[in-house]
Amino acid sequence: MPQPRVIAELAEERLEPSDKGLPARAAGLTVREFLASGPRLSEFWTPLLVLDEQALAHNAAVIQEWATSHGFDLMPHGKTTMAPALWQRQLDAGAAGLTLATPWQVRTARSFGVARIMLANTLVAPAGLAFIASELADEGFAFSCWADSVATVEAMKQALPDAPLPRPIDVLVELGAAGGRTGARSLDEAVGVAQRIAASRSLRLAGVAGYEGSLGHDRSPAALAAVRDYLGDLLELRAAVRPLVGDRELIVTAGGSAYLDVVADVFAPAMAADAAAGLPASWILRSGASLLHDDGFYHGISPLDAGAGADARAGAAARSGGATLISAMRGYARVVSHPEPGLALLDGGKRDFPYDEGLPVPFGRAARLGADEEPLVGASVTAVNDQHAFLRSDAALPVSIGDVVSLGLSHPCTAFDKWRWIPVVEHRGSDRVVDLVRTFF
Asked: D-serine dehydratase-like domain location, by residue (predicted)?
């Protein structure tokens, strides 16, 4: 592969007039030059997505400590941000590698030299398989992908280049569940997939994988029971495929950002048994939203957030010093219309902020970006259009045309794809911009 890019090179990229949210004076400057000029948040244009450096550092430490203390390797899902600088932050904090979702994302990560990647998806596109085959010539590169059917395995084998591979592609059998997403729908079917992988010369059975997050959307007893039952099935699959893996390391991976406490609780006895028996195993957590966290969906469901309830926090955070995650992202939009006392229109919408897991939550208003805020009590965003948000209240809204409204956001996985450069302030409430995060979407 070509010489990988390094994160420092991003500081030499030139900013353009088309870069959304940046001050006009930034155009033509390199990122390094712009940051050296001492930019302030008040210079930026709305709508705007802003990151919090202090919160990023805090969250990276919390999730890494939690994973390590519970016996997991952390391979955070890089699709959340597609930001190499944020990937590197977690790798530097101790993450074992990255999880990604598409061959193109894998190619992007490889261009920055990421040495260990799990593709949490099937890989059947001939071009993607050819790329991975060529990358496996680098003995320092570790790669694995998933398969959930015999048809998938056969499609992979047929699409691989005719030339012998430098080494087999590691494949994990994905177990699903009725009503879930992908994944084999029964244990017998999953074992059949494992057997077909193990019989292949170009593929190597590496372990088992699954995603429990699609089985629940809250922390109700029913959702937690469904997740727990599914994870138990995943352990059954692990036991069934162990003879096919032999004395090699067996990977077991689960865990988004919503039910990591349940994953740890269900897996703990099996992890202890493997350790006692001296069986080589790698238990991988793929939490991708934990670095950013949010003020919506994950705020309410993550066991590492106060919103999830005391019982969940007590069990999940006990071995991380009780530390909890905090939102590291916030949106800002400006009042551009106030046609009724209880209605104001903001200049940010679907093309600027996530809305699929909850609408933005208004926190406060200020006369300008970076200024002290006054809380917006009783206000809510009730709808978003492409470039507008509807701010409503039963009482008259205490906002004026031109005011800036700060917005708590829900679901970091659909926040970053709308931005090329995202400013980072030193901490919440600071006007000082200390970095620009580059995304690759």
From this structure: 328-426
- The verdict on 225 and 351 lying in the same domain is no
Q: How confident is the model at residue 320 (pLDDT cuts 50, 70, 90)?
A: very low
What range does the domain containing 218 cover? 115-289
pLDDT digits (tens, 9 = 90+) for 229-245: 999 999 999 999 999 99
Average pLDDT, the chain: 95
Residue 272 domain flag: yes
DSSP state of 98: E
Q: Where does residue 68 rank: exposed (0-12), middle (13-18), buried (19+ CB within 10 A)?
A: middle
User: Rounded distance, CA 284 to CA 96, Å?
Assistant: 9
pLDDT value at 253 more than 60: yes
Q: Which residues pair with 365 in a beta bridge?
A: 374, 405
In the chain, how many domains are there?
A: 2
- Does residue 6 contact residue 408 with C-beta atoms inside 8 Å? no
Q: Are 147 and 197 in contact (CB under 8 A)?
A: yes
Q: Are residues 182 and 271 in the same domain?
A: yes
CB 257 within 8 A of CB 316: no
Strands, E assignment, 62-210: 73-74, 98-100, 116-119, 142-147, 169-174, 203-209
Q: State the first-to-last Cα distance of the chain, in angstroms, to the nearest integer.
A: 21
